[in-house]
Amino acid sequence: NYFTFAQQWPIAVCAEHKSCFIPDSVVGWGIHGLWPSSDTESKGPENCNGSWPFDINNVMPLVPELKKYWPNLYPDTKANSFWEHEWSKHGTCATSLPATSNELKYFGMGLKLHAKYNISRILVNQGILPSKTAGYMINETEAAVKRELGVDAVIECVYDKEKTKKQLLYEISICLTKEFELISCNKKEVSETTCPRKEPFFYPPVHDDFPQIDISVI
């Protein structure tokens, strides 16, 4: 019925995976995936064509950009395994549309959407910057993202139980029609966030020299 386009914050991704490395070339929000979605509870479809395995040769022109904007942060996995997983699970379900009918078009569309709806830029425009100390409240953040997009997004957090013992901003998903026009993700008109409602979440910088602010709760 529609697409879900998810972008993830590298620091929070690494909070969930012990073997994790963020290359210097990765300086902002990375693509998690471009997922064909349905209005059913299961969210699918998934794994639509097992006879069409991912072939890195079909996306070679995109590899430099994919490494930067759709990176695999797990050094204990094969270099191309993230793209292979996303293609097999999700990309094969998008091939009926001309805009995503093969690997090159599918991954190219993900990169185009990342450039058009860049979460780093959307948050900066609303005064939400990475910080080692600032905490953000989910209600204000949801409203800020909606001011930028005009529709509801889904904002997710993850608890960093190993290092900071804090809730970290993890992923922001937007929803689009099959013509790639923005629509609200909240079909039931209620927030689907996994972030805490009554306490702040945190948005630490990817690298120490990353632009950031140094204040408390916003």
UniProtKB/TrEMBL annotation:
GO terms for molecular function: ribonuclease T2 activity; RNA binding. The active site is at 32, 86, 90. One of its GO terms (cellular component) is extracellular region. One of its GO terms (biological process) is RNA catabolic process. This is Uncharacterized protein. SUPFAM superfamilies: Ribonuclease Rh-like. Belongs to the RNase T2 family. InterPro entries: Ribonuclease_T2_eukaryotic (IPR033697), RNase_T2-like (IPR001568), RNase_T2-like_sf (IPR036430), RNase_T2_His_AS_1 (IPR018188), RNase_T2_His_AS_2 (IPR033130). It holds the Pfam family Ribonuclease_T2. Keywords: Disulfide bond. It comes from Magallana gigas. It comes from the Eukaryota.
